[in-house]
Design a protein that fits this description.
362 residues; alpha/beta; ten-stranded mixed β-sheet; 10 helices; 31% strand
Length: 362
């Protein structure tokens, strides 16, 4: 079945439908990863977005239950140049088109994704729709559509839950967390209590945890104002680490500003330099907002890492406090895993902080 991708600037791309056939509208972005399509589609940071894959063949190794980052697709729709209908991999349990159909995920294939990506790079991210017919009303609707300011509320857990072990205890604040964060912490025997995005500092402190991790998530960090006072209180009392959206909220809580990037960083090949050590890691990234470096001058934040190509702020440290953040995903999924050591650094920070305080929680 032929369908159309319509951009708010008037451009139209033709393709063949797969998955769900319902009309869909959202912000269109692109991901440069050669693999990891299932992890990307289920990454809640893509909530509300139409996800374009730049790699020409998507779905060649199928889909399986173990690689999902959430229980259902987070992206509103996916766009590919070619989708594999006959996957080949021993872990595969279903083809991508069959999985998309099962999960009510609209897909479009046969699209010139190279041209589409170049257009997004030139114009910046835009609103887009996948429809059966191109009409003037579609363009008017696209131009009138306003992005949800409740993206985090729409994906965050509504009640606390525990991923228990007998190890060190941390609170993981769910702004749209990836399952790979939980898996990475479980591998380190960390006892995790996941809290909703609206949790207060008082509730976290009453839980008797040893540290706090701010997760990734979708949307504009300025749309999550309730998190700011929580972070400001917690960072003075417990070790804290922020990832992606958590990094941006950590920056805002300490007086910095954020801005919307032209087309963001979405992929698994972003080189990041550690300004403290000179170490270079390749990282997994998915963000459309970034910390404004000019806004850091009058804060107590120190830039620790930056993206090599465009010098985006990739890491921050709060002076005099055991609190830091990174813009990328050290949990990777699907990779690379260069920066996974940051979780060990966070646990070392918790251990040293507890030692200074004279002991461990009972």
């Amino acid at each position: 079945m032929q369908r159309y991708l319509v951009l708010e600037n008037g451009s139209v791309y033709t393709g063949q439908a797969f998955g769900a056939s319902r009309p869909v509208m959202g912000e269109i972005v692109f991901n440069t990863g050669m693999s990891g399509y299932q992890e990307s589609i289920t990454d809640l940071s893509y909530h509300g977005q139409i996800l374009t894959f730049t790699y020409p063949l998507i779905g060649n190794y199928g889909v399986n239950a173990e690689d999902a980052e959430s229980f259902k697709p987070a992206a509103k729709a996916i766009v590919t140049h070619e989708v594999a209908r006959r996957p080949s991999n021993w872990r595969s349990t279903m083809s991508l088109p069959a999985w998309a159909k099962k999960n009510d995920l609209p897909g479009l294939t046969g699209v010139d994704t190279r041209a589409l990506t170049k257009e997004i790079r030139d114009y910046g991210v835009m609103r887009a729709a996948i429809v059966d017919e191109v009409t003037p009303a579609i363009l008017e609707e696209l131009k009138a559509t306003i992005a949800s300011q409740q993206a985090v509320a729409e994906v965050s857990t509504q009640r606390p839950y525990v991923n228990p072990t007998d190890g060190v205890s941390i609170a993981l604040i769910d702004f749209g967390l990836k399952n790979s964060i939980l898996r990475t912490l479980a591998k380190r025997n960390v006892n995790v209590t996941v809290f909703p995005a609206t949790v207060s500092a008082e509730t976290i402190l009453a839980a008797g945890v040893d540290g706090v991790l701010l997760s990734n998530g979708p949307g504009d960090p300025m749309d999550v104002p309730t998190a700011i006072p929580m972070i400001q209180t917690i960072q003075d009392q417990l070790p804290l680490m922020g990832i992606c959206l958590g990094h941006q909220l950590f920056a805002i809580a300490n007086g910095a500003n954020t801005y919307k990037m032209k087309f963001g960083h979405r992929g698994f090949n972003h080189a990041v330099r550690n300004l403290m050590t000179g170490r270079i890691d390749f990282t997994s990234q998915n963000h459309g907002y970034a910390v404004d470096p000019a806004s850091l001058a009058d804060t107590n934040l120190e830039v620790t890492q930056e993206e090599i190509n465009d010098h985006t702020v990739e890491g921050l440290q709060l002076k005099g406090r055991p609190a830091f953040s990174v813009q990328y995903h050290p949990d990777a999924a699907p990779g690379p895993h260069d920066a996974e050591y940051l979780f060990d650094d966070f646990l070392d920070l918790i251990a040293s902080t507890k030692e200074k305080k004279g002991g461990f929680h009972a």
